[in-house]
Write a structure and sequence with these properties.
Order of helices and strands: HEHHEEHHHHHH
Strand order of the largest sheet: 1-3-2
Number of helices: 9
Strand content: under 5%
Radius of gyration: 19 Å
CATH architecture of the largest domain: Up-down Bundle
GO molecular function: DNA binding; DNA-binding transcription factor activity
Number of domains: 2
Keywords: DNA-binding, Transcription, Transcription regulation
Protein name: GntR family transcriptional regulator
Number of strands: 3
InterPro entries: GntR_C, TF_FadR/GntR_C, Tscrpt_reg_HTH_GntR, WH-like_DNA-bd_sf, WH_DNA-bd_sf
CATH topology of the largest domain: Four Helix Bundle (Hemerythrin (Met), subunit A)
Largest sheet: 3 strands, antiparallel
Distance between the termini: 8 Å
Helix content: 55-70%
Pfam families: FCD, GntR
Shape: elongated
Length: about 230
């Protein structure tokens, strides 16, 4: 990966901060969006100067935003060089999917064991997912709906701490999923597997829901691992 470390960041799109929006929060959201939709590619280097020029912000909020992204491992700060957009690795994929299997599986168990009343939101998101693919929306847009599906699944267990942990992983989940869709656009049509999960959850059929969820996640793990170089 070192051979790619000097790759320069693509030109950052210009933007301006709306009134009454915190400058550091704006810079953080701006940069994170560019990372998650791959405007900033793996191996790119982005500097404070580039972000200041694109946003019109001062260096202090830009530095705060980059530090926060570094803490979340969405960039790697490198002295006197800038912020490196890290490469997605097989190890990262396996670790993320291990955690997702634990968290989402436990959410399904809680939902089914307690026979929590379903909201219908999971199937609504599947419908929205299909519409977005039919409309030719971007990989990042489609992946944002996939993210909502799995976040909604975890949230349905009504376990605040579990939802908080899953939320902390969601940006990495979205980035990896968007990467995979960009490699193979046919993977964007995966709603049937998710409909199977939703219908089993709504029936409180724990075994079927866990089986469908596990199959979905293991398929995703295998396919994404095959797409990654490192």
């Amino acid at each position: 990966m070192e051979a790619f470390a000097d790759k320069e960041a693509s030109r950052l799109p210009p933007t301006s901060r709306p009134a009454r929006v915190n400058a550091a929060q704006f810079a953080y959201g701006y940069l994170k969006a560019l990372i998650l939709d791959f405007t900033l590619e793996q191996g790119d280097i982005v500097t404070e100067t580039e972000v200041v020029s694109a946003t019109g912000l001062s260096r202090t909020p830009v530095r705060e935003a980059l530090t926060r992204l570094n803490d979340e491992r969405l960039v790697e700060l490198q002295p006197r060089r800038g912020a490196l957009i890290p490469w997605i690795t097989r190890r990262q994929v396996h670790e993320l999917f291990d955690l997702r299997i634990l968290l989402e599986g436990e959410a399904v168990r809680i939902f089914c064991d307690n026979r929590i009343e379903p909201s219908g939101r999971l199937l609504e998101l599947c419908d929205e997912w299909d519409r977005m693919v039919d409309e030719g929306r971007s990989e990042g847009d489609v992946m944002s709906v996939v993210r909502q599906f799995h976040s909604t699944l975890v949230d349905s267990a009504n376990n605040t701490m579990m939802a908080m942990v899953f939320s902390s992983l969601a940006d990495h989940f979205q980035r990896i999923g968007t990467f995979s869709f960009r490699q193979d656009a046919s993977r964007m049509r995966a709603t049937e597997a998710h409909r199977d999960i939703a219908m089993a959850v709504y029936r409180h059929d724990k075994d079927a829901a866990l089986g469908s969820l596990r199959a979905c996640l293991e398929t995703g793990r295998r396919l994404i691992s095959q797409q990654i170089k490192y």
